[in-house]
Amino acid sequence: MNDDKRTRTLHRAFEQYIAGSRMRSTPERLAILDAVSRQKGRFGTRELTEALASLNFKVSRATLYNTLSMLQEAGIVARRPSVDGTGDTAAMWEVAEERNRVGFTLVCTVCGRRRAARDPSLGRQLLSRRFATFMTTGVEVCISGLCSRCRKKQTI
After folding, report:
1. Residue 51 half-sphere exposure, CB side, CA atoms within 13 Å?
2. Number of other CB atoms surrounding residue 125 within 10 Å
3. Are 128 and 122 within 8 A, CB to CB?
4. Rounded distance, CA 75 to CA 64, Å?
5. Which SS3 state, helix, strand or coil, does residue 9 take?
6. Domain for residue 116, yes or no?
7. Rounded distance, CA 4 to CA 37, Å?
8. Sorting pLDDT into bands at 50, 70 and 90, what band is 96?
9. Taking a C-beta distance cutoff of 8 angstroms, is the pair 28, 59 a contact?
């Protein structure tokens, strides 16, 4: 999906949510939505703040977090846990365009380097798994270990 079509789709979804929730469509919310639509992959609030600054738009942290929560409720963004090299978790966000998505992240436990990975057969297997009283719509898998650089340093 190209960027213009993606932005239009997200705006349409946001407008429907706003109308159904009897909320206002403020310039701050729309600027945050525009910044979100320009993000590729996962992003944090720091990247979003930088994107807003590049648009010459300042919003408070409270407005940013409240709008992200609103976008999550609308199904526009999804909050994803992110584990850094120390084991701490931080909130990361991504545009929730795909249902039944399977994401694999390889995380180096030494340097914290992250890399996305794919395994279609394992993804299909995980999505087909059935649980009582629960419907799976996506799977996030975080695999920890050593990246090639850190592994080379340990052998020297």
Report:
1. 17
2. 12
3. no
4. 16
5. helix
6. yes
7. 9
8. confident
9. yes
Can you give the residue range of the structural domain that contains 133? 98-155
pLDDT in tens, 98-141: 555 667 888 899 998 888 787 878 877 887 788 888 777 677 78
Alpha-carbon distance of 123 to 144, in angstroms, equals 18
CA nearest 112: which of 94, 87, 140? Answer: 87
Residue 51: give its domain's CATH number. 1.10.10.10
Map residue 107 onto helix, strand or coil.
strand
Is 84 contained in some domain?
Answer: no
Going by C-alpha positions, the residue among 81, 123, 117 that lies closest to residue 102 is: 123
What's this model's pTM, rounded to 2 decimal places?
A: 0.61
Identify the sign of the CA torsion 100, 85, 73, 19: negative
Give the residue carrying structure tokens 């949510």. 17
Q: Which runs of consecutive H residues, i.e. helices, occur in the chain?
A: 3-21, 27-37, 45-54, 61-73, 120-128, 148-155
In whole angstroms, what is the distance from residue 127 CA to residue 74 CA?
23
Between CA 84 and CA 2 the distance in angstroms is 31
CA nearest neighbour of 140 among 126, 130, 121: 126
The DSSP 8-state label assigned to residue 76 in this structure reads S
Kindly state whether residues 56 and 14 are assigned to the same domain.
yes
The domain tally of the chain equals: 2
